[in-house]
Amino acid sequence: MLTAGIDIGVENVKAVILKDGAIVGRGKGRSGGVGRNAAAEAALAGALQEAGAASADLSGTVATGKGKYDLLFADKQVTEATAAARAAKHLYPDATCVMSLGADETLVLTFNAKDKIGQAVLNEKCAAGLGSFLRKMAMLLELTPDEMSALPPVAPGGATVNDGCVVFAELDALSLLNQSVSSREIASALTDAAAIRACTVLNDITIPMLDCVVLLGGLTRNHAFVQALQTRSGVDFTIPSEAEYAGALGAALVASDH
Amino acid sequence: MANKGQLWETRPLEFWARAKELRAGWQQSIESKEQVVGQGNILAIADWSRAFPDVTLVEDNPAGSMIASQSSPFARKCRLASEIRGWGREICGYQNTCWGSQFLGYQVDGSPFPERRFVVPLPCLCDQHTKRGQQVRDYEPVPQWMMDQCVYLGPRDEAREEAMIEHRAFSMLRQINDIERLFGQQFDDEKFHDLLTAYSLVDQYSRDISVFMANTKPTPLSIKDYYSVYTLGSLTKIDPDDAVNFWKLVRDEVAWRAENQIAAVGNERFRWIEAHPPSWHFLKYYRYMEQYGAVCLGSQYAHRVTAGCLERKPDGTLDRRNMLYYPKDTPLVTREDGVRICLTPDVRYPHHHKMDEFIRHHALVEFADIFQADGALLAGWRCGVGCTLTRKEQAMRLRKAGYSVMFYEGSQPGDRTDLDEKRFLEQLDTWMETQGLEKYAE
């Protein structure tokens, strides 16, 4: 049985084709703003091509992500929480917690003794859009995603920016630029500030559920950010190779369930 | 009426018609030109101003909320009018909206803003409530009477509470004397005592309603409906006899619904509590949650305003938490007696949801337990109401006690500027899905 999962986020759309619990096709593209449905169709087409299948072969398509209701062809929509939980448990049955970091939303889930979702914590507005923020800051500082990912940690006594609000952080970054601080140092400071904001979501988990925290979402590609998050939180995250596609994987698994 | 996934019978509430009449009457009363209209926030058993022949107190909470609810563009104008006079965004939205309308000089319907001739700001230390009087006085130098809000932490101390009541009683007696002197109005002590007696009945009826809501599954009354009427007789001041009759009407209907399992939400399968007033302009989230079979039982705020706080008694029944009434067992004879009784509940709420940073952590868990809740939806307000203080700690305790918790954020219940309605509904979707609930099919 072939099923499709589509995660249409604020910035990117990811599609996954699943066969017997294994990913056989992936597709990806920009989510396209008002053209989300077309962007999702394109990503799905790419995933189907990789899987060597056609849309008629699919027994179900489930959408997740911020744009999930913009898809005209999905059979069902599930929240990002459901998709993340489903993917994490599929990849790591012993997972106790999931942290999902996207362009827009940071989400933390815990699992209870029955492997159902226990607690769900979403970011506050002040911690919204971390992925988008770092991308925009990279553009401002003229750094590529790879360069952002390879940034060193903030050095002791190095530049810092406001870690309570991305608007303030951006203003601080501009101020540092005016002081001739290097782009890389500013970028490290911004990355660290974003990690601190992400930690505020993780900090809401009071029960000792941090034994096996699976980290998912597009921001996992930014190694400097992940390193800063690990340092700030003290959590040793488990990151699957499919982390970026986890939302789509979870959606495809839900499609299989149905 | 059938709900999707209906589990119980549900019916429209019959007290609605009377509630609408009383609401319309209140609107008419505050527009009267014949009376001395003051801005007052009275957190007391009875509206003591009614013991004057011609004094009306208007609260800014409902006025500000109604503006925000009726017209977003006008509410924004009001906020701007207030902000350009130096009243920042951290000021309670009830005030900025209501008093912005005063600064503009007209109300949402275009009619002139009623003149306030004196101010009695809410004596509440939780946030900027005490600034309310100043905002009115910025407009016109009217008399203002402030009351101290006495609080203390730690174990109950009855001697201290009596001293606190005495301190405040002195302030209130002075207010009454000053209003008599300045406006030539005679305070009628007999009427004042009648008011207290009447409102003790309102108190009793509202307590019963809270108990029915807490004890009965499915709940006979949702907070969405309760919020529509719960200020009648308190924040929206009406004739005391009307208030007593109305609350009896509500109590009797709720009792009948409880007895006959007439549900507020016919598909109730998830009960949640809150700690705050909601975003008054966006009450439709309650309806949205009904798609999941979720019903809100209310907040500490709502049940405190009406019924006080409940606790489980040794025999297993629910009743109001014991409070110190001063002077104990003393007959109501003098004005001073009445003033003391009037002020007692405000001295230290027995289960205070705002001020006591120790009690409030535990209180919300107990509240969830009493109302047989499955979860809690907590607001992170940017300003006003003050209750957001320690909200995160409350969430931690709730989670530890096994309740699921979801947050949403906004400016303040009477201010619509910061509430992202779409995001809020998405958060509710996430909350419900993580509880294993799906919307009933269309």
Highlighted features:
heterodimer; A: 258 residues; alpha/beta; Nucleotidyltransferase, domain 5; 2 domains; four-stranded mixed β-sheet; 8 helices; globular; B: 442 residues; four-stranded parallel β-sheet; three-stranded parallel β-sheet; 15 helices; 9 strands; 46% helix; 10% strand
- Widest β-sheet, arrangement of strands of chain B: 5-4-8-9
CATH superfamily of the largest domain in chain A: ATPase, nucleotide binding domain
Task: Going across the biggest sheet of chain A, name each strand in turn.
Answer: 3-2-1-4-5
Low-confidence stretches of chain B: none
Strand content of chain A: 15-25%
What is the total tally of β strands of chain A? Answer: 9
Contiguous low-pLDDT stretches of chain A (5 residues minimum) are none
- List the total number of helices of chain B: 15
Radius of gyration based on Cα positions of chain B: 21 Å
Biggest beta sheet attributes of chain B? 4 strands, parallel
Compact description:
The complex is a heterodimer of chains A (258) and B (442). Chain A is of the alpha/beta class and 258 residues long. Chain A has helices at residues 36-51, 80-91, 130-140, 145-149, 166-178, 183-202, 223-233, 246-257, and strands spanning 2-8, 12-19, 22-30, 58-64, 76-77, 97-101, 106-111, 117-122, 213-216.
Explained architecture:
The complex is a heterodimer of chains A (258) and B (442). Chain A has 258 residues and is an alpha/beta fold. Chain A is 39% helix and 21% strand. Chain A has two domains: 1-83 and 242-258, ATPase, nucleotide binding domain (Nucleotidyltransferase, domain 5, 2-Layer Sandwich); 93-239, Nucleotidyltransferase, domain 5, CATH 3.30.420. Chain A has a five-stranded mixed sheet with strand order 3-2-1-4-5. The model of chain A has no long low-confidence stretch (mean pLDDT 93). Chain B folds into two domains: 9-15 and 201-323 and 348-434, no CATH class; 36-190, no CATH class. Helices cover 46% and strands 10% of the residues of chain B. Chain B contains 15 helices and nine strands. The longest helix of chain B has 27 residues, at 189-215. The model of chain B has no long low-confidence stretch (mean pLDDT 83).
